[in-house]
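Figure 2 data, in text form.
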Amino acid sequence: MNEQKLSKRLTCVANYIPKGSRIADIGSDHAYLPCFAVLNGQASFAVAGEVASGPFESAKEQVKHSQLTAQIDVRFGDGLSVIEAEDAIDTIVIAGMGGMLIRAILEANPEKLETVERLILQPNIGAWQIRDWAMGHHFKLVSETILREDNKIYEILVLEKTSERIAYNEKERLLGPFLLLEKNEVFQAKWLHEKENWARIVNGIQHGQETEQNTEKITELTEKIRLVEEVLR
């Protein structure tokens, strides 16, 4: 993978960047994504944010190597703190983190979202956290993709700012409203695996000590199993 050819996962993420956007790539790693987006005309300007010194230095080298220092600013900082008002960022990308961490990043600096029209988020786990966050923060899902790469399954969620009051039911929140409509092979494989894993956990708890916490966990997982079974039936 390099600035000319991204992984399958990041290519899908890049395809959701509107042409001519001003983007912030949070947790940019080697800055391959912003370099690719600028080189292909999808982004006119990019901030590549990194909180770890090694990837930060790698990103700076990559941007310099790609001769894009005038269009991509590599910044060291935590989450959305790297974004300045004068950047006029309209699209934020956060890929390759857990859903809980992505949610925490969005909640830590809500003022940084004022000019943002689109969020392109790729949680490795816990995508429901993002759907849950969206309901209370004037963003709505406009697209979702689920794909497999190197025996790992990834979900990509695209959200846009809205004045509507958005509400997702439990099934939509857990599984994704757009993914539920398609229910492709990767979707079915992911949730069959999750269902089997939850059943093993429930079985293990049932053979252990009976506590209030364990009873609550069994109830929670049993409901998730029921929802998934309904969908896969």
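Caption note: The longest helix spans residues 185-206.
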